[in-house]
Design a protein that fits this description.
The protein is built from 21 helices and 30 strands. The N and C termini lie far apart (about 80 Å). By secondary structure, it is of the alpha+beta class. Helix 1 runs parallel beside helix 5, helix 12 crosses helix 13 and helix 19 crosses helix 20. The protein has an eight-stranded mixed beta sheet with strand order 2-1-3-6-8-7-9-10, sandwiched between helices. Strand 25 and strand 26 form a beta hairpin.
Length: about 750
């Protein structure tokens, strides 16, 4: 390594000088500062020096074996010290093998010979009894690599780390990715237990003044983060890694965010991690031709493609004789030991399909899926590893993309059952689309296979009929109105179909009123779902008190009361500990500004209509367009209801020995209630016949009674869903969500009292 840092007038070089000055000029009065570096003569490793330091600072250039003694003396004499131990690579010296090089970071004791130098740093500089500051400039690997844990343990036993400042692209003749660290140390007990982490290396596109201002701001803070740094307030154990990203709140937030897929786990809980042993020199005797008996192809990093495949064997491929335990298995995954840090894509992870015998060399790791892990989870983890998110998070903890022993601790997201179900559905859809595309291709390719055009014509039309039908159905899904009619729960879907009919063929006033009726149905149904799921989660809904008072007074809830239930989901008592995904979806829906704004506008329109502030005929067209736009915003925000089937149970039988219930039900999805019966098995023995259930995205059945019940409507003679509308002389009046029809009922009174509505 060269002896000088590049010009101190540049960036980040001048930033490093300013930061060193800031750290060493401490206290009410600036203390004297000394710089201790080692000589750089033949036979000793070079030393790094920092130009641009203040002239008044004393410079002490000593032999490497005198650095600890000199530093201790200067500290005890009342100096703050900048210590720059020798580090770099040194060439062969007497007594060593020809051509051997060792990386020398620092030295332990003067009694050790050159032959005993190891790739470790034992900074023998005991902390003085006086208040003093010691800054040490080191390679960043010394403070984060497991190999240097002993160094950190010795260092932190006597010294307290107050700052860890990372900097790169400073040292000449060294790759710009090389990273150094400036450690600021004080004797234990002489400073607040805070560690300020700062990363100058992130500031390539930022002016030096801005970076220094950010560092000065960090100096004044007792917690939180700045653009380039943060304050860590936790406890550090002796030997702990000081990797920048390890405790960065922003990085930790990203890591924790992965848990929203379900949870996170280290990679070693999903895969057996196997290292390659083959080396072309050490295993020269096992090399062979491709056609030799027992030959196996040796896969290297260059054979792995970014698309997850492996290159075909060519003339340059290596083959060797290998035993069965050293061969790859089908569905093993290979990943290079070293990736390119500048590459912003994900890790290169290739799948071995097992079509030929193969082994792997020492620059490749094999991830062998554990038998206990479902294939869908393995595929999800591999997809994550191949994504930029994985490399971004990994690079925050590691200076290079060298996958060493720590790869087993690499955090990967594990999907929960809801995500897995969605992925299975997506995979099924993908396979169906591919099959349909193949079917269409076969029809096209067969056009001229018939003896005559007369014979071909009807067969082509007939063969393509279902393909064209599927295409039309798929195209319809781009129409949000079609999605509501076809896939939403029956109370909303039916109401939507009635609204569309009114808008297309009735008077404008009737169409406008129908839009507002539909908005009330959407809000009413969502509110009932909230009440059911909140009760299951043990969350008190305070808006129920107002509904109870109205029912007790002989009136009943309206659109505003159900809207109040939904608004309450944005309160703190709903935010804490809500893990039920269906309820979480509704909470997120009404915390979205445009959804809430649309709801408010629709509620205001409904109130205006109820209080005789009706829209003038000349303004109806514009009012219809605006109201319909708001209704679509509101309804499409509730698209999660597509994954929450509404089921009317018509029969249920419990098998005590199998501990499972066989349930017969009608799925009340879409705009018509007449659908075929289906069966399912449920591990619950309390499923009620002739009651409505809604399934949350996790597949759990939730009884909607008494909030929503199913009845034969005496007015329209169809199956309808009803909610409580009033309580009159001990009898409740139920109101249909679909059309507003009412029915008197005494059966649900006890249950309504139990849930607090009466």
């Amino acid at each position: 390594m060269g002896s000088n840092v590049s010009s101190a007038d540049g960036h980040p070089e001048c930033v490093l000088v300013e930061i060193i000055g800031s750290l060493l000029a401490t206290g009410e009065t600036e203390r004297s500062v000394a710089v201790v570096t080692s000589q750089s003569e033949d036979g000793t490793p070079p030393s790094v020096t920092v130009p641009g330091l203040p002239e008044r600072w004393s410079k002490h250039v000593v032999n490497w074996d005198e650095m600890a003694t000199q530093t201790k003396s200067l500290l005890n004499s009342g100096n703050n010290v900048l210590m720059i131990p020798p580090w770099g690579r040194r060439s062969t010296v007497a007594g060593e093998q020809e051509g051997e090089e060792r990386r020398l970071l620092s030295y332990s004791t003067a009694s050790r010979s050159l032959l005993e130098f190891q790739e470790e740093i034992l900074l023998h500089c005991p902390a003085p009894d006086v208040d003093a500051v010691l800054c040490v400039l080191l390679p960043a690997s010394t403070v984060r690599s497991e190999r240097f844990r002993l160094f950190r343990s010795d260092l932190m036993a006597n010294w307290q780390v107050t700052h860890a400042v990372y900097i790169r692209d400073v040292f000449p003749n060294v790759h710009t990715s090389f990273e150094g660290v400036l450690l600021c140390l004080v004797p234990r007990g002489h400073a607040d237990p805070l560690v300020r982490f700062f990363e100058v290396g992130k500031a390539e596109d930022t002016g030096a003044a801005d970076v220094l201002a950010d560092f000065n701001r960090l100096q004044r803070m007792k917690g939180s983060t700045t653009e380039f740094g943060y304050v860590f307030r936790g406890d550090l154990e002796a030997g702990d890694s000081l990797a920048y990203g390890l405790r960065d709140p922003k990085i930790e937030a990203k890591r924790q965010d992965l848990a929203h897929f379900g949870y996170t786990a280290p990679l070693e809980e999903l895969f057996e991690i196997r290292r390659g042993k083959f080396h072309p020199v050490a295993h020269r005797g096992q090399l062979c031709e491709a056609n030799a008996l027992g030959a196996a192809r040796v896969l290297a990093g260059r054979d792995l493609r970014l698309d997850g495949t492996i290159t075909d064997a060519d003339a340059e491929a290596t083959w060797m004789l290998s035993e069965e335990p050293d061969l790859l298995r089908a569905n093993d995954f290979l990943i290079p030991v070293i990736s390119v840090k500048s590459d912003k894509r994900g890790f290169k992870v290739a799948k071995f399909c097992g079509t030929y015998p193969a082994t792997w060399n020492s620059n490749v790791l094999v991830l062998r899926p554990l038998e206990s892990v479902p294939p869908e989870v393995i595929d999800f983890a591999v997809a994550y590893l191949r994504s930029p998110a994985a490399t971004q998070l990994h690079s925050a903890y590691n200076s290079t993309f060298h996958l060493g022993r720590e790869i087993g601790e690499l955090t990967v997201p594990i999907p929960d059952e809801e995500i897995l179900a969605a992925l299975r559905n997506l995979r099924e859809a993908q396979n169906n689309f591919l099959e349909w595309a193949d079917e269409a291709g076969r029809v096209i390719d067969s056009i001229f296979d018939y003896p005559s055009v007369k014979e071909a014509r009807p067969k082509i039309i007939e063969a393509g009929r279902f393909v064209r039908w599927r295409n039309r159905e798929a195209a319809n899904l781009d129409d949000p109105d079609f999605v509501v009619r076809r896939a939403f729960p029956y109370p909303i879907a039916h109401r939507w179909r009635v609204m569309e009919a009114s808008l297309s063929g009735g008077p404008p006033g009737s169409g406008y009123t129908s839009i507002l009726d539909t908005a009330e149905s959407v809000l009413t149904f969502l509110a009932q779902v909230v009440l059911v799921l909140a009760r299951a989660a043990g969350i008190e809904v305070k808006a129920v008190e107002a509904i109870q008072r109205k029912l007790g007074g002989g009136s009943g809830p309206g659109m505003g009361d159900w809207a109040a239930v939904l608004q309450e989901t944005s309160g703190k008592h709903f935010a804490v500990g809500v893990t039920q995904s269906g309820l979480a979806n509704i909470i997120g829906m009404f915390r979205t500004a445009d959804v809430e704004a649309a709801r408010v506008r629709l509620s205001n329109r409904r109130n205006d209509e109820a209080h005789n502030r009706r829209v003038e005929p000349a303004d109806l067209a514009e009012a219809i367009d605006s109201a319909l736009t708001d209704l679509r915003i509101l309804t499409l925000a509730a698209a999660f209801l597509v994954d929450m089937p509404l089921r009317h149970v018509t029969a249920a039988s419990w098998d005590s020995f199998a501990s499972v219930a066989t349930v017969t039900y009608r799925e009340m999805i879409g705009d018509h209630w007449v659908v075929k019966s289906e069966t399912d098995q449920v591990s619950a023995n309390d499923i009620e016949t002739d009651s409505l259930y809604i399934l949350d995205p996790d597949g759990k059945w939730h009884l909607l009674r008494p909030f929503v019940v199913v009845r034969h409507c005496p007015q329209c003679r169809t199956i309808s869903t009803f909610h409580v509308d009033a309580c009159i002389n001990g009898t409740v009046r139920l109101k249909s969500i679909e059309n507003g029809h009412t029915v008197m009922d005494q059966q649900e009174v006890p249950a309504l009292k139990t849930v607090g509505l009466l």
